[in-house]
Please model this.
Amino acid sequence: MLKNVLEWTVGDASTYGKPVAWINVSSIASPTGGADAHESLRKVLGYVGAEIVESACVRVPLSRSMLDADGLLTDAAARRQIAEAIRRLAEQAAQPVYRPDPVRRDIQINEGTIRLGQLLKLADVIGSGAEVKRFLAERPVRVNGEPEARRGRQLHPGDLVEVGDVALRLVSMPVT
Model:
């Protein structure tokens, strides 16, 4: 299930700049306590620009004796630890987020449209067209404020493409 959640949120860049946290529940008998999964998730969410709320990311070791017959957590200490992590995440999510204004650049195009991948190469965001697919999979890109990961997305004069701290505004090349 976690794989599906990651595909849905990473694929459309919806976690970019958003506060995230996770609660890793592992068996007390687990040799690493789920540390490897914890670190892998941190790496993936870091790649997509999520704001990781470290104080809300917790590992809660559980044993079967801490659950009732329906699988509900009955251990008071573990319940408090989880509740505190959720409180910290909610507190961070309620905070205003400062994001510096992106550096704006006008990019002139001489035809009516250009594909997103072509624009990234034209604007020297990437070195070659071969890099587009990987770049879009690893970096959040927004077109007119909406997440976009399709390299073939048709762009028109007036569109605004945001990549990190750079905003590329498409303008028509003047007719001479």
Observations:
- The chain is about 30% helix and 25% strand.
- The chain has a mean pLDDT of 84.
